[in-house]
Records
---
Amino acid sequence: MTTKRLHPRVRVVWVLRAVLAAAVLTAPVAGGFYFGYLPGWAPLVVGAILLALGVVHALLRYRRWSYEIREDALYLDRGVITQVRTTVPLVRIQHVDSRRGPVERGVGLASCVVYTAGSRGADVRIPGLTPDGASDLREELKRLAIRADGEDAV
Amino acid sequence: MKLAPQSIPYRALQKVAGVVVVLFFVVNDSEWGFPAAAGATGAVLLVAGAYEVAYYRRFEYELTEDTLDIRSGVISRREREIPYRRIQNVDVSRSVIQRAIGVAAVDLETAGGSSTEGSIRFVTPEEATRLQREVQRRKSAGSAADDGDAAGEDRGPVEEELFAISPRELALVGALSFDGRLIGLLAFAGSGSVPVVSGYLPDVSTLALSAVAVAAVGALFLVSWGIGAAVSFSNYYGFRLARAGDELRYERGLFRRYSGSIPTEKVQTLTVSDNPAKRALGYATLSIETAGYAPGQGGEYGSEAAIPIARSGRVYELAREIESFGDPSFRRPPRRIRWRYAFRYALLLAVLVGVAFAVDWYVAADIPWYAPAALLLAVPPAAHLKWKHRGYWLGEDHLVTRNGFWSRSVRIVPYYRIQNVIDSRSVFQRRWSVATVVADTAGTSSLTGSDAAAVDFDVEEAVDLQSELAGRLQEALRDRRSEVGSFEWFEGDGETDGEGDADAEAPDESPDIPDEGVVRSDFSASTRDYSEPAERVDTGGYAVDRFPSDADVAHRPDGEESSTDAVDDDGDGIDGGDDADGGSAEVGGDAAEDAADDSDGSGEAETDESQER
């Protein structure tokens, strides 16, 4: 089975998110400038650095992200700073959602969330899918989970 | 069944006591004086009492065939049915006052949700115990054989004591527990006040200042220790753990008595933990974790159903009795990783020295800020110890991990409890090309991030471990399934949501034709399982279920030979491919494994196909 990648447009969502985060984090610095505690270049520099970091992180994140549906498990590989590889046995899937947030709807994407009874990796989100892809993936995971026939998870 | 009547005044007072007292004093001080105050508090009490009477009248619980039904609610009404099989723990607690008036609170935990699912406040202690026993009896009756009722009844009361805390051990628990919360609180409150305080003490000599500081810290530790000792003494007073059939029961508490039951089949993780003091004395702690919420006192501690302290030999013996995991021999991380720990500790020391220097500079005191550097000598042994106490071991049915050299914990996770496996590598770990593999379970303490983890193993080993764990989970599931299947074959009743029923009965009954001479499918309540994948699932245009899969080809003829009933039992009568599980339950044993393999194979093939689309 092939390793699948996310839709390239997911970068838009992540970059937007990075912009938003940068804006929020820069706000106090801008406030400092407004009240005269800090020189004028401070918010600009901080904002630029945060934005650059956020954008680079978003792009790297896209490069890292991949997922794969194997014979009996869903396998995800992601994470820039801490690389995380998760194996979700299909038997353990409790339920599957496909969902579309406002930004995702804006760029015509959707994501799929897989829930297990575990506590740490209780919900695994696969972003960057086309709306059809997300519902197909949901159906496929559902089908595979049913086929895998888990006994009581807990 | 109703609550205990004395719960009405108790509940009313419990809810409004605080309000009433405040109200009384506030109104009493106002211009209207005592009569108004008495009137107001009386009115509040009356309203509360009326509400509680209504609550009492509405609240009803009932033990039915396979669920516990609770009807409650005065304003918004709720009816809840909790299947016995889904109940994780049943806990009973009684505070001092509750004991005095003879009531007890019963909490039933299931794995769903974050709060207690069934909370019965309050019943008499006898009723509480009866509920506890009855739930267990019905649960085991449900999952065991037909004659399970009688057997359950016989076996129910037989309690075999596993552990009872001795006064010596209780004293040890007290002595060894240290409540860090006070220190944390003071440190938090104090962190902001250092500059303020220093402003008031400009002239005091350094010596006096450090003397006071040392004395204060000493007193703080003593007080913390005292609090910790008192808390754990009252918590674990009279602790005992017993085994009754397939259930563990515990009891503890000095002021507030707790008792609870933990079904052994619901145990997620066992943790044996110790620290240097306990190790030196040869003691350890065992905690038992289920997916229900923490028994006893909310989520703070994770599982409270723990053996607070016992000889480590005894602890392992008990742990093996609950989960027979054998004798672990741990695999350690690569030796080079000790450098990583050494660097880490050195870095920590550098930060410490830096902070000390900053304080010294800020307060303008002449304290020896470089003193922490002396700890540098301790770094190599610490790094070595940390490495030495890490490890994992793959047992026959269990993953055992060990971590931490100060507070060391050994976690025992049965493979079939693994929910997912996570391999993570931080930036720093990547530099050493090592990884951490976490086996996530549904247990509660993993919420606090203390999952079973194999930390800092070689990348290749981590990858192997991850796939090995996933593989062993599949294997364990397969084993359990065939076990359940063959079990049902003979006993005719299943714990798999009745899914086995139809399949298991079929071969048994079909050969002999019923009295009226008509073979009909069994439409009794439990035979139709709606979770069975037999229904057409909308696969969104995938071709998968349109064609019968290998699994079906393998078992269908067999099923038809052995029973005329089997086809009907399937109910749907459609080509299947849907029926991999029914198939395995039906044929049992080796054939089940084949079928499962086949279905896996076919699943793979189909996914391939679907991906090509």
---
Amino acid sequence: MAQHISALRLGRPYQSLDQIELKDGLGTVSQVNAGIIRKDLKQIGEAHAALKKFTVAQRVDMCALAGDIFLNSNDPQTYVETLSATSGLPHSLVRRNMHRIHSVLANMGEVLRGLTRGLDLDDETSPYSFFPVTHSLGLVMPSNSPAVNSLWLPAIALGIPVVIKPGRDEPWTPYRLIQSFIAAGMPAAAFGFYPTDHEGADAILRLCGRALVFGDQSISDKYAGNPSIQVHGPGHSKVLIGEDLIGRWPEFIDVIAESIAANGGRSCLCASTIVVPSHADEIADALARRLAPIVPLPAADPDASLSAFANPQMADAIDATLEQSLTGAVDVTAAYRHGPRKGLFDGATYLRPTIIRCPSFEHPLANREFLFPYASVIEMPQEMMLEHIGPSLVVTAITSDEGWIRELMEFTPIDRLNIGPIPTLTISWDQPHEGNLFEFLYKRRAFQRV
Amino acid sequence: MILDEYFRSIIDWHFSPETGCPFWLDWANRNFDPREEVKTFADLSKFPHFQDEWLRDLQPEVWVPAAFRGQPFNIFETGGTTGMPKQRIGWHDYKFDYEEFSGKLDEQHFPRGEAWLMVGPTGPRRLRLAIEHLANFRGSSCYFIDLDPRWVKKLIAAKQFDQARAYMDHVVDQAVTILKHRKVAGLFTTPKLLEALAEKVNLYQAGVRGVFCGGTTMAPQSVRFIIEEVLEGNIGFYPTYGNTLMGLAASAPLRPEDHYSITYFAPQPRAVLRVVNPLQTTETVGYGEWGRVELTTLTKEFFMPRFLERDEAIRREPRAPYTWDGVAEVRPLGSMEKLIVEGVY
């Protein structure tokens, strides 16, 4: 079942002589150099024009159709199996990610209304006050989770072509999405798909006008401060419990456990730090009891919820980091796991869920996130929490304390704030997600006409 | 066999007191007299690998053959990064390969009498004189823009990528200026600089008809990229492999079945390239297999047996007009295992 994935040069398939092989001989992917990307980007204006021939309403309809094609056509089972084999995600999680992507496409009208706060972009009299600041959106994608692709989908509905560098282990989802869009009637030229190296990624980021990059802290640091590049680094998402509701902590264990372990713990939306004003030992123990029994299951098992590591060396490195840094903290899950954290199942390497009770934010395992269900539990007075939590993609704050809620709302290092027991992965379609894509791609100006 | 006869004549020359240089005469005194022991080219293996520190540590005078004594020589240096570079001295050698190479250039790509531009490492390199000689040999003159690869390597090793990019822009900008204000038909440069140049100026419209490239790895996809995307099928492309110690290895014209894999042929008999087993360097690898590049230089000016280059390549069968082995897809040694600082050139 080996397949070849071509690059797409503004929609035109290009089979390179440079190809990388995917895990287990599942396929090969054409690699292109930065020069090809730079050359194609000179024509990006034409791609933009091709997409703008349709109204927003037409593109929203095409998104819905693309969503159906993505979910149901072109042998979805093979897609699930292949992606599972290269990424380590069990079939159940791949399917859940597919449904998530499908929902975004099916609800694109609502998503755009959320992003634009109800603006009618097809209204000939008002849209002139908004104009796109770029001919394309560049994307340097990660390999961790397919649903991350849902972030760029609104760009197509807004009429902005995409120039994508897929993650090395996950070319499948963006490629399948592009094929679905084209089958739904979107102009092929609106899609650049360039598996490439660092120089190519850099060309996409610097030349696309607007770009999103996913990566670790070093990537975040490299592009921080460049207003045309939005960096999606580690999420450092958290669950906080207020002093007012801490007495009811057992009620919140389900929500916290789900926040830690949903999507195999692989999403930047997954909670990796739990901060509570008291009862930290008991909460850590309850989470450990809940999560430690989760074991690897066959990839096709509908109950499988742990993901294998596509690159076993990464699991080795994470496991080593945890062991080496444990001094002063406790791996609460160890008592309930009945075996080592790292193990082999069906020939693949897994890390079992791990809850670490850390004495403070200064501990080396506090406020860390890893590519598996992992969280540290820290106890500190409520009034000290905001001083310590730092940048957090999502914070679920379980409290009814209006004073603290106001403080949380004014606290800028939080990207998305949930008040109340809402799992950190829960997304509301009419809310901008991880930065407002519309505001990133469009600018407002005064406009008069006689 | 021509190579055997030529090899014996070179051995006689370098190991005879009337013609040889101090280094090899002294070596023969301490080891053996090759004039007696070397009969055919296969006897090359009686020599040890030539050590590059001999070209770094010894004064250049030890390499002056008696027959050239009293004639001032050119001193050419290899790439180098830090410390003392390797030096090779010479008188006329650099001209021969390039005159021969001239016969392989198509008149429509390098019209006689029309100007050339070299954008690349000039400085103490043999290449700079060689390119000018080649242009002159074809009745042409040559403009030069320098690029200092040692500085680029330092910048990249120090992760000063912005500086490296700025330096490359500086080099390319100067070349663009020449192309805009002077009529140039032939271009010598490196693949990276060629790509950067083509992004700033339409080479065909600027009058360029032929490009002669060298100096770095050219994997098949890079070659295809240059031919299809950079030169857009309008401009003749002549990839070469060469260095100060060897001279110039031309490439056989590409055929569709090559799939853009370039095979180079050493300027035999003046230089012989072999692709050897890196663990057992007396053995060559089989055709189609990767191995380490070993260079033997055999001229009256310079004898250098079995020098192990820091390159690896695929050994290829002889191919007309060449009757000896070729080396293909040359790249830095161990490219697959580690990241190489190759710079912009």
